Backbone:
């Protein structure tokens, strides 16, 4: 069954944020990623070679288009090597549940703009059992195809919302919820007492904004190993992984 011109145009449109927002749908590519997402997201369209997905029997799929070869997906794909399948999924509707913030770790991202970094952070959160990520409105779009791909399916297991950070942080201040942030002038994370709360990670080039940093109760520093000259900061995705690992190592 050939892919119609209308469907082709629609898939190309979903590569742009404004059309993803308009249609409330996003693209996922490749057998492994789609297999991870099918049980958790409503699938609007599944375009595939004649192979089947074991999740099809229980997943919600509105339309399946069978094609003859991966090459037919080459024009639609964002990947260098054409995948064996492309799926269009509907976005879930999520919101911040403020009452839950005091009981566990919540990641807060302040203008993280690189899709690869954002996808890796989502994957890292899932690895460490972190259920919530709150993104500033200046962060990259979690449904950008590059972000979705980088999550390797973890996007299905972490609640991610966009919000005005000051609203959330004011709530935390009013309810004595600890607010941590990684900063170069912070205290050694390995020598600092840690509790459940908010962990703020900043922009790749500028770190945490001044407005957001004003709310931080505990500034954390990841120390470098040697006293010799080193670069002045870690990649934000790597810094997030180290920080989450230390919180979890402490049983938090």
Residues:
């Amino acid at each position: 069954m050939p892919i119609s011109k209308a469907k082709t145009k629609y898939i190309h449109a979903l590569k742009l944020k404004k059309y993803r927002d308009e249609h409330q749908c996003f693209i996922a590519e490749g057998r492994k990623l789609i297999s991870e997402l099918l049980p958790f997201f409503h699938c609007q369209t599944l375009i595939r070679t004649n192979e089947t997905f074991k999740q099809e029997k229980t997943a919600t799929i509105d339309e399946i288009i069978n094609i003859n070869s991966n090459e037919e997906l080459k024009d639609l794909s964002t990947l260098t090597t054409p995948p064996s399948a492309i799926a269009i999924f509907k976005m879930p509707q999520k919101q911040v549940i403020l009452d839950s913030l005091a009981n566990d770790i919540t990641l807060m991202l302040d203008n993280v703009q690189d899709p690869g970094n954002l996808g890796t952070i989502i994957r890292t959160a899932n690895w460490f059992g972190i259920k919530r990520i709150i993104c500033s409105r200046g962060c990259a779009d979690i449904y950008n195809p590059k972000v979705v791909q980088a999550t390797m399916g973890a996007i299905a297991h972490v609640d991610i919302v966009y919000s005005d950070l000051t609203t959330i942080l004011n709530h935390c201040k009013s309810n004595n919820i600890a607010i941590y942030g990684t900063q170069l002038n912070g205290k050694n994370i390995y020598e600092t007492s840690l509790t459940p709360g908010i962990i703020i990670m900043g922009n790749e080039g500028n770190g945490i904004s001044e407005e957001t940093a004003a709310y931080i109760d505990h500034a954390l520093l990841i120390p470098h190993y040697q006293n010799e000259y080193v670069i002045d900061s870690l990649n934000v995705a790597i810094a997030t992984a180290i920080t989450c690992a230390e919180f979890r190592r402490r049983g938090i």
User: Anything to note?
Assistant: The chain has eight helices and ten strands. The mean pLDDT is 94. The radius of gyration is 20 Å. The beta strands are 25-29, 43-48, 64-66, 85-90, 105-109, 132-135, 159-162, 178-188, 197-201, 218-221.
